[in-house]
Structures are given as C-alpha cells and as structure tokens.
Amino acid sequence: MEKKKQSNRLLMNVLLLVAGILLVSYALTKQPAYHWVYSGLLKQNMELIRKHPKATFDQKMQMKLGASYEYLLYIKQETPKDAVILYPTVRAFKKAGSPFTQEIFNKIYATRFLYPRKLVTEDELTTNKYADKITHVAIVNGEGRQHLSYPVDSTYQHAVLPVTPH
User: For residue 56, is it within any domain?
Assistant: First the structure.
C-alpha cells in the first residue's frame, strides 16, 4: 500500500513538472511580454555584462539607454533630494531631432531614477499636491523655460534650473 502511495506521488510530481515546463515554454515563446523579457531584455543585458564586466552601473546604463540616462543622471546630480521638479511633456521629449529614445517622458519611468525627488508634469499643475512646491524646472529640447521666473538663454536645450535664481 505504501509503495502505491509513493508511486502515485511520484507520478503526480512528474505530471506537475511536465505541466510546469510546458507552461514556461508557452510563456517564453507565445506571450509577447515574456518573450520580449527573455529574448530581448535578458539576453541583451547579459551580453552587455559579458562585453563590459568591469563597467560600473552608471556606465552600463549609459551604454544601454544613452542620452535618456545621461539626462536623468544630470537631473539627479543637479538637484537636491528634496527637489520638486516640473517635468516636461511627452511632446517636448518627442520633438523632431530629440536625442531621447527611451521612455524618459513617462513619469513613473523617470521617478525610478530620480527618487526621492518628486516630479510634477504640466498636466498636473492644477491637481498635484506638490504643484505649489516646485523648486526646479526640467528643460527638454528647449521647452520649459517659460516656467522660470527669470530669462534663460535659448541655447539651453536640455537643463534643469531652479525656479528662482540663487
């Protein structure tokens, strides 16, 4: 009787293992999001790590994300941790000739890099609880200067500046 229980348990475990393998295989080959994570993101990241094993995190991110990462890193370095930043519109990031290629325009994406700084988008100026506490304005592709309380040279295409001059 005991051998029959063990045999049934073994059979059940084998069936569950096969079902699990089939499920993972299906997810990795047929589901677009999982396929992208495995075939695109994971493999690209591993290739980058293999090619540049001694590169720092910032160097790897710069190689992978280019100008988008450089701009977010610049904002992080030029603003205090308690900054409240007026963040540009999607339109500003997608202007013709823009160097930004990643989802940098996405507030959630940018917040991951800039935390604990707070971001307020132009669309949120009347609804965000931090809208009246903005300390800095991010300028992208020349847009955003109009939100500053002082004139800014038009050569500032990409910057982050304090709302009031120091």
Answer: no
Residues 83 and 13 both lie in one domain: no
3-state helix, strand, coil in the chain (%, to 5): 55, 10, 35
In a domain, 18, yes or no: yes
In terms of Cα–Cα distance, which of 132, 130, 103, 104 is closest to 119?
130
- Domain extent at residue 30: 2-51
Q: What is the DSSP string of 42-69?
A: IHHHHHHHHH-TT--HHHHHHHHHTHHH
pLDDT of 153 reads: 85
The reply to whether 34 and 112 lie within a common domain is no
With both helix axes pointing from N to C terminus, report the angle between 57-65 and 43-51 in degrees, rounded to the nearest 10: 120
List, in sequence order, the alpha helices (H) in the chain: 2-30, 32-35, 43-51, 57-65, 67-78, 90-93, 107-114
Q: Domain check: are 71 and 44 in the same one?
A: no
Write down the pTM of the prediction. 0.69
The per-residue pLDDT for range 19-61, each reduced to its tens digit, is: 888 887 776 677 776 666 666 667 777 777 777 788 887 887 7
Backbone angles phi, psi at 103, to 5 degrees: -80, 35
Confidence of residue 81 (pLDDT cuts 50, 70, 90): very high
Q: Is beta strand 136-140 parallel, antiparallel or unpaired with respect to 158-162?
A: antiparallel
